[in-house]
Design goal:
Layout: E1 11-15, E2 21-26, E3 33-36, E4 48-49, E5 62-65, E6 71-81, E7 84-94, E8 97-100, H1 101-108, H2 113-116, E9 122-123, E10 128-129, E11 134-135, E12 138-139, E13 149-150, H3 151-158, E14 170-172, E15 175-188, E16 198-211, E17 233-234
Parallel strand pairs: 4-10, 8-17
Antiparallel strand pairs: 1-2, 2-3, 3-5, 6-7, 7-15, 8-14, 9-13, 11-12, 15-16
Helix pairs in contact: 1-3
Length: 244
């Protein structure tokens, strides 16, 4: 939690590279909290849809996520039998949001699997018509949306970054991963033969398994780099490597 900033300052944009979302230090909020664009909604939480069948962006940004995890943990086990040793490490992170800007841009460009499924069809966005909406001269304010949009408008302006609100690209970044596995065998030399006490032959694998609901390549990502103290911004970041 941000407790205080310099006198006269209540908030500071730590990462301001994007127009739709930023990572902020705001007094009373988690450090690096996401504030970004959201859709207009009624008191019941329903999207307000315009006559074009698309939701209406709100004028002001709001808090849309917290990149900090609820908790992190790890499980390390080592088993030994005579000269054979086997160890593994499970790395766990629960909670912590990620802005999947990569997915938003790829939707806009029509490069996701989702955008390929119904390119010639139409989509109906669930919500109600915004106040003052008229269609063919009839006031339809508050009625359920029945205006369908084509795939281009849907994937560019609703679930893409050509107009889509940042709030819908914020995902849970929880993970459980098999961080490393090591198998080794020790060959012992009697009486320091060849001047050696023992020789270890080992196989090591790193980042072998990942369990997550995150749509991107890897939720362990940071656009601002490993040396940064903020995270959770995914915009064409390089994925982690698996090594043997």
């Amino acid at each position: 939690e941000v407790l205080s900033l310099v006198p006269g300052v209540d908030e500071f944009n730590v990462e301001a590279a994007f127009a739709s979302i930023g990572s902020f230090a705001i007094v009373g909020q988690p450090y690096g909290a996401f504030y970004g664009t959201v859709w207009e909604r009624n008191d019941a939480g329903e999207l307000l849809i315009g006559a074009n069948g698309l939701p209406t962006p709100a004028a002001a940004t709001e808090g849309v996520g917290d990149p900090n995890p609820d908790w992190i943990g790890g499980i390390r086990n080592t088993f030994q039998y005579k000269n054979l040793s086997f160890s593994f490490f499970w790395d766990i992170r629960m909670g912590g949001d990620i802005w999947n800007g990569t997915f938003a841009r790829l939707n806009n460009l029509g490069r996701t699997a989702e955008s390929a499924e119904n390119r010639e069809g139409t989509y109906l966005i669930e919500g109600v018509y915004a106040p003052g909406t008229t269609i063919n001269g009839v006031d339809v304010s508050g009625q359920a949306n029945t205006t369908e949009v084509n795939a281009i408008n849907y994937f560019r302006q609703y679930v893409g970054d050509a107009g889509g609100a940042a709030e819908q690209f914020v995902e849970d970044g929880s993970w459980a991963r098999l961080r490393d596995v090591n198998l080794s065998y020790r060959i012992r030399f009697e009486d320091r033969k060849y001047g050696i006490d023992y020789l270890d032959l080992s196989f090591n694998g790193r980042n072998l398994l990942l369990f997550t609901d995150y749509k991107g390549v890897d939720p362990e990502t940071s656009l601002t780099g490993a040396g940064s103290n903020i995270g959770g911004l995914d915009y064409f970041n390089n994925p982690g490597s698996r090594t043997y």
